[in-house]
Predict the structure of Putative Polyadenylate-binding protein RBP47B.
Amino acid sequence: MQYPQATAAMVMLHQMVPPPPQPQYVRHFLPYHPSPSPQNHQHQAGTAAGEENKTIWVGDLHYWMEENYLHTCFGHTGEVVSIKVFCNKQIGWSEGYGFVEFYTRAAAEKVLQSFAGHIMPNTDQPFRLNWASFSMDDRCADVAPDHSIFVGDLASDVTDAMLQEIFASKYSSVEGAKVVIDANTGRSKGYGFVRCGNDNGKMLAMTEMNGVFCSGRPM
């Protein structure tokens, strides 16, 4: 049995009752960013302060050691901000050193302590680490003057150590030497580079060492 009047009254009553208020949520969350990391906030705060050194110097790198190699060494710490390996502009290989910047000084100091004396992967030599003398923000391969000398006509048995020794015995400014090796044969290509600490030493060596014998052969 239908009751039209009762039905109409219920409809009117329903329309007169206001809907329940919607719950109000206080937005305490921040906008989402992919792969958030708490270290990023630490890095920003440390950079603003600009006081702490968070960069370590890595020396005695082989010619094939690039940024990816150093990342395999230190990346597992989860504290690496950036890595830079300085390369020779003429041959594109490592100059033998690089820099690793960390989020905090504590992280860098921990690496210095824990890696001391440990052997570098795929080599038989230990890590050579120290505090960098400047910030990674100031690093730039083009800023540092190139004091490298090209040395040709090298005997096939000349090594990095031999080349460095013959120059360093006469010039205290010599910082290192590198004989270019063929990546396919593993043998010397007959030339290399000697790195000096200043332009004066470079010019003297270029003038006075021209034609000097090394391993029975003039350079």
In short: Residues 148-218 form a domain with the Alpha-Beta Plaits fold (CATH 3.30.70.330). The helical segments are 4-16, 38-49, 67-74, 105-114, 160-168, 199-208. The first helix runs from residue 4 to 16.
